[in-house]
């Protein structure tokens, strides 16, 4: 066998410029598409930040960047209460402190299950432990987690803020907040009218549920697109074939003359067929 390099068998024409193979650069991976590919490669159980309210579903981790220690929204199954729990300063394998946004739940008490009625902007937060109690807020701003069934007071509207954090608005259009009381302790309230530091939470969901939301949105857009095409086609067809003016077809003076002349010559049917063919031709031109 010859030691020479094997020549390509691809046909080339005289004068044709040889295209150089384009090297993949880091810039090609920039932008939303890169982010989307990364999410597709993630494990379904990976905890990620939602980008829009519809992605908040399934197991949900809610925490607040309090100082000196961040806190998570927990459910105490013994007292049936929603409580604020200080997050331990976890360490990575390299003995480095885990950053705030890299935190994930380490206890089932930190996980809430988010559900919603299909198409509704509001969500329900049910505890992941015990008998499954719903997070609720009354007209006085008192937050509790002892309801077995969902109602208006168990509805929350998530609002995604520009920095990616989330505010949770109740049925009374007030926000869930972390409030400091006498003695320096923290408690949950639901009567805040403005979104400040105390009303901003980080929310994480599992990647598979975020992807599920994307798929539902694609199907919804596809159905809406098909419906719109159908309406446009139907409208176009009606303009060509439907009789207007109380059942009378509106035709031009020239068409009327042709039909009258054809009637006299005994070829009305042929003229009607010719006119229909002409209308179809005009429609697709």
UniProtKB/TrEMBL annotation:
<dbReference type="GO" id="GO:0051015">
    <property type="term" value="F:actin filament binding"/>
</dbReference>
<dbReference type="InterPro" id="IPR010414">
    <property type="entry name" value="FRG1"/>
</dbReference>
<keyword id="KW-0539">Nucleus</keyword>
<feature type="compositionally biased region" description="Basic residues">
    <location>
        <begin position="8"/>
        <end position="24"/>
    </location>
</feature>
<dbReference type="GO" id="GO:0005730">
    <property type="term" value="C:nucleolus"/>
</dbReference>
<feature type="region of interest" description="Disordered">
    <location>
        <begin position="1"/>
        <end position="51"/>
    </location>
</feature>
<protein>
    <recommendedName>
        <fullName>Actin-bundling protein</fullName>
    </recommendedName>
</protein>
<dbReference type="Pfam" id="PF06229">
    <property type="entry name" value="FRG1"/>
</dbReference>
<dbReference type="InterPro" id="IPR008999">
    <property type="entry name" value="Actin-crosslinking"/>
</dbReference>
<comment type="similarity">
    <text>Belongs to the FRG1 family.</text>
</comment>
<dbReference type="GO" id="GO:0071013">
    <property type="term" value="C:catalytic step 2 spliceosome"/>
</dbReference>
């Amino acid at each position: 066998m010859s030691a020479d390099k094997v020549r390509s068998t691809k046909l080339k024409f005289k004068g044709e410029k040889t295209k150089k193979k384009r090297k993949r650069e880091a810039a090609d991976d920039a932008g939303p598409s890169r982010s989307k590919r990364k999410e597709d490669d993630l494990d379904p159980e990976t905890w990620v930040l939602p980008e829009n309210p519809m992605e908040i579903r399934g197991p949900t981790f809610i925490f607040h960047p309090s100082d000196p220690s961040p806190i998570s929204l927990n459910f105490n199954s013994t007292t049936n209460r929603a409580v604020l729990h200080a997050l331990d300063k976890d360490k990575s394998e390299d003995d480095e402190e885990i950053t705030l946004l890299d935190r994930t739940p380490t206890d089932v008490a930190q996980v809430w299950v988010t559900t919603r009625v299909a198409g509704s902007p509001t969500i329900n937060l049910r505890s992941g432990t015990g008998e499954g109690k719903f997070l609720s807020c009354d007209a006085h701003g008192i937050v509790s987690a002892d309801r077995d069934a969902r109602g208006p007071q168990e509805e929350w509207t998530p609002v995604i803020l520009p920095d990616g954090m989330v505010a949770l608005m109740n049925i009374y259009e007030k926000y869930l907040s972390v409030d400091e009381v006498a003695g320096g302790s923290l408690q949950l309230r639901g009567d805040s009218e403005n979104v400040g530091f105390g009303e901003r939470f980080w929310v994480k969901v599992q990647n598979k549920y975020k992807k599920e939301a994307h798929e539902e949105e694609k199907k919804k857009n596809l159905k809406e697109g098909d419906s719109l095409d159908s309406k446009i086609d139907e409208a176009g067809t009606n303009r060509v074939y439907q009789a207007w003016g109380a059942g009378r077809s509106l035709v031009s003076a020239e068409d009327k003359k042709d039909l009258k002349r054809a009637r006299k010559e005994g070829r009305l049917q042929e003229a009607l067929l010719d006119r229909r063919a002409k209308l179809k031709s005009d429609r697709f031109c």
